[in-house]
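ok new one. same drill as before - structure tokens go in, u give me an amino acid for every spot. 381 of them this time. try not to just spam alanines like last time pls lmao
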């Protein structure tokens, strides 16, 4: 067999190769002794002949899954892939036709893409008023929910998104609980999961009562209580805290002063409460380069920031890694990835050090493969 370093070439997905001398991240969140992982036709297989890629004693993870991004350009998917983010889930775009084409093209030089099309929002909500989504994005009450869901389904999204804004003085009235519940019910009847943007305990409660599958964002204005966290855990509702986005919002907030009630500590404490209650937490960054967003967050590298912030909030490094791999895959029904196992996609991230001992080790990227195709990595492109 020929021997190659892990980042030396791109392998066609029909090629057979074996990554040798690697510690493999197991389903229980631990790394085993050095072993080999074989790949054929883009999936993990039992050992086969072919090129040997020397893992040099590194640590092999499933490709990371970022459950909350906004994509404007294919380069953002390529940036994600370089940092080991092999799957990105877009959470709302006004350019869905372009993103759907990117999704369906399934280019191995870019991260895999899934999306939601335009989100549901209240009449005169931010998505319509400021972010350029079509007026049909607005939902005018529970009787309008069926229309909205039918229009989204015609666009072939992978899941649906609902934006639940806060009730603030001199701002448009947000979607009511009955409207959110109607949207979720119609979506579920159509077999679609629903992600709800919620940034307060009140909004979390509305999303939970409506039957949302995923709640995204952690509050920065109040803290999720232990009782609410237990209810979320008992319901099986997953949470994507997007801590890196919440921190960035507060760091870049353009106000004469930051209101005292707005504090990143709320987001950390809420995530900690959810974790203690046993809620399912998945990794999401809200990465975007949109001028209409409250803050910009870089694609790809921010996933590593989010891993560290989840650990700061009380998750063990192993739990944070599962939040970015197997748990994210399970929540969004991506049954072909998220684990390194026979028959699963060969979406792989090789790092030099053990990230269960030091979560920042995920930044030491040695190799990345999407469906068995090697990608450029930071510093080696």
């Amino acid at each position: 067999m020929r021997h190659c370093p892990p980042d030396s070439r791109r392998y066609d997905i029909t090629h057979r190769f074996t990554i040798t001398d690697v510690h493999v991240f197991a389903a229980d969140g631990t790394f085993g002794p050095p072993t080999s992982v074989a790949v054929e036709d883009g999936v993990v297989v039992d050992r086969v002949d072919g090129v040997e890629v020397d893992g040099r004693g590194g640590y092999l993870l499933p490709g990371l899954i970022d459950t909350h991004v906004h994509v404007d350009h294919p380069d953002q998917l390529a940036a994600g892939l370089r940092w080991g983010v092999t799957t990105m889930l877009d959470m709302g775009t006004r350019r869905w036709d372009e993103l759907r084409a990117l999704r369906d093209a399934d280019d191995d030089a870019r991260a895999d893409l899934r999306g939601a099309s335009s989100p549901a929002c209240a009449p005169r909500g931010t998505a319509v008023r400021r972010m350029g989504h079509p007026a049909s994005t607005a939902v005018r009450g529970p009787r309008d929910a069926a229309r909205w869901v039918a229009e989204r389904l015609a666009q072939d999204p992978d899941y649906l998104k609902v934006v639940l804004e806060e009730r603030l003085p001199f701002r448009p009235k947000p979607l009511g609980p009955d409207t959110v519940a109607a949207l979720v019910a119609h979506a579920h009847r159509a077999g679609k999961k629903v992600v709800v943007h919620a940034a307060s305990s009140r909004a979390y409660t509305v999303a939970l009562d409506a039957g949302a599958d995923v709640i995204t964002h952690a509050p920065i204005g109040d803290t999720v209580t232990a009782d609410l966290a237990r209810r979320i855990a008992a319901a099986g509702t997953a949470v994507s805290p997007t801590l890196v986005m919440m921190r960035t919002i507060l760091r870049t907030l353009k106000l004469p002063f930051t209101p005292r009630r707005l504090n990143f500590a709320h987001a950390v404490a809420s995530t900690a409460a959810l974790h203690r209650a046993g809620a399912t937490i998945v990794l999401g960054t809200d990465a975007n380069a949109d001028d209409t967003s409250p803050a910009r967050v870089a694609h790809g590298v921010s996933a590593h920031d989010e891993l560290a912030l989840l650990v700061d909030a009380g998750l063990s490094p192993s739990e944070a890694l599962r939040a970015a791999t197997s748990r994210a895959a399970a929540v969004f029904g991506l049954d072909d990835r998220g684990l390194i196992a026979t028959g699963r996609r060969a979406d792989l991230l090789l790092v030099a050090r053990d990230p269960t001992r030091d979560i920042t080790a995920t930044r030491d990227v040695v190799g990345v493969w999407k469906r068995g195709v090697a990608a450029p990595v930071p510093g080696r492109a």
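The chain has two domains: 3-62+337-375, 64-331. and btw The chain is about 30% helix and 20% strand.
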